[in-house]
Structures are given as structure tokens and as C-alpha cells.
Amino acid sequence: MGSAAENSTSDPQISAVIFDLDGTLLNTEDVTKNVLKNFLAKYGRVQDSDKEKKRLGMTFKESSLTIVNDYDLPLTTEEYVKEILPMYQGTWLLAKPLPGANRLMRHLHKHGVPFGLASNSLRKNIEGKISHHDGWKDNFNVILGSDEVESGKPAPDLFLEAAKRMDMDPSCCLVIEDSVVGVKAGKAANMKVVAVPSLENESDSYSIADSILHSLLEFQPEHWGLPEFDDWVDNALPTEPILLTGVLSNGLFQAHSDNGLSDLPSQIWGLYIGWAKLDGQVLKAVISISWKHGCCGPKRTIQPCLLDGDHVASHDNEIQLLLVGYLRRSCSLGSMLNSPEIIDEDKVTADAALELPEFSHKLFEC
């Protein structure tokens, strides 16, 4: 993982951006993760993680056929789709934009940079997913589903058609994707590709991408010849507040359950600033968030550094963390699996930023 490599002066100027949807702009994967599991249980089947990895990035049609065959369901593909689609549709309204998604789209729109949406989902399903997000449908210059081209990803058809409809040369387009099949499709279309994989997808699989980021918060438009962001407050970026509740034990935050981290997408990584409510006090904090691989799979590590007190927890203390900002230094840190170290520079930046109204702890006061 790393921040974007600067676009070579010999490369064509990037003039348009094409996004994937699920897992790139919208966190549909977290809200739909139990739909198939519950569906299969009705037929006495148990979801298999290896089979699920195989389906990552498939078109809806390909995925449906694969599920029916892999789990030997007593259904035709058409019957499966008719039964499961309403279950998925019921969760789409719960899907939130991923970190940095709205910020980047607003920035491109403000500066007149055309951007499109090219997804392996069916067009009608795309409409259902984005319809309640303000400005999304209107601001895309083009929206394409896999049923509107001959072949979905990893074929380049979706991206080539999106470029054609925006009247752009493919070499002048930048693709932003979360899946390996999407990255392959972007490169097959002769486009530059930024990968923003979730943790479950090993970053080594994305080596053909031109850049690999932890989240869209790391995206630096100027590295691709696009207008620079102007919303940094010194070296901190105001973000949508995220409230976490759990315990502080031996210096690490532990959620009471997996549901306690439901608002924290897997792409959240790096150094954040915010507030900690502990022992009746509201304290400034820098929070290091990373992932570690263990024998039972990847595990999130959340380490808050409290700035206003001598709170070193020797036992489990109830704590609430309110993340309100992102430190610019995160954009140049290393691997997803390395814990970002909090240094004095981060504490100084956080201490000053948290005095500003942009980084308020008013959510604690509700």
C-alpha cells in the first residue's frame, strides 16, 4: 500500500475519472454481507469464504449462476434472482458513502472534471443504490451497468464505453477501483488505475495498478495533473464524524462486539484526530488505526493517544471515541498491515486542530 505515484510527464494528461461503485464509492458490501448467508441457510447450505472470494467483482448475472452451481441450489438462476434480489434491495438504503468518496466527487464537479460510473452491477440495481444519495445521479457524466455492454469486467468494455460517452480518449482517463477484476479491466482499456482494496483482498494481487491506496482520503489529485484539494486545515482534514463505543484496555480500544465497529469501513486506516470520552471527561486524542494478520485472520487495531491527561488504562475502562479528522501525514505512510506510529508532530497538529469548530465534539453533547 502507498500513496499515488506522480504521473510521468510523458503520460497523457488525465482529463476524466471513472469510478466503480460497490466497495469503491459505496459501502454496500458491509450492509449486504449477511444476505447470502441467510438465504443459503434456508436451503441448508453454509456460506464458503473461498467460493465468495472467487465471485469478487463478477457481474450480477455471472455471480448468480456461480452461486446456484457452487451451492447446488434446487433453483434455476432466474428463480434465485427473483427470490434474493428483494433481500438485497432492502439493504441498499443502509449503504453509506466510503471515506473520501463524496469529497472527491464534489471536488471534481467543482473544477469541471468529468467523471463517470462503470459498474458490474445491472443498471437498474445501480439506480437503486445511488438514488438516495444527493447529487450522485445528476453529477455523473455517464452511468453504465454491465447489462449495457457486451462483456463486464475484467473485459475493458465498460470503461471504453464510458470514455466514449464522455468523448474522452481512454489514455486520458483515470479508473478508481476496489476489485482485482476492475483493475484488470481498467488496464485492458489502456487507462491509469488507482486501486483502493478492502483489507480482505491482499494488496499484492493489485500490483498491476498504477497506485494502491488505503482509502480515497489518501487520493492526491495533483499527482494526476488534476486540481489540488483546498480543504485541508493546516495538516488535518475534517471528516464525517464516526462514533465508536467500547473499552480501553492496555492502551488499545476494543469494541464491545463487531457491531460496535459497524460504522468503520475496512478502508479506514491511518492517523485520525478526535475526542475520547473517558471517566466523565472529554479529551483530545490522536487515534492510530490499522490491521494485523493473525492465526484467525485479519484484526483491526485501534490505539488512541490521549492528549489531555494521564489516562493509562491498567484495566478495562469504558470509552467512546469520536473521529472527526484525518491527518495529512497518513497519505505518505506504509503498508495496510503496519500500525502507524503516533509522533510528536501528530500531537501538535491534533492539539491545534481540535481547538477549531471544524473538529468539534458536539456529537458528544447530543
Automatic annotation (TrEMBL):
Official protein name in the record: Bifunctional riboflavin kinase/FMN phosphatase-like isoform X2
Keyword field: Flavoprotein, FMN, Nucleotide-binding, Transferase
Pfam family membership, one: HAD_2
Keyword Hydrolase: no
PANTHER family: 2-DEOXYGLUCOSE-6-PHOSPHATE PHOSPHATASE 2, OS01G0757900 PROTEIN
PROSITE patterns: COF_1
Transmembrane segments: none
A single MF term (Gene Ontology): nucleotide binding
Species annotation: Salvia divinorum (Maria pastora)
NCBIfam families the UniProt entry points to: HAD-SF-IA-v3
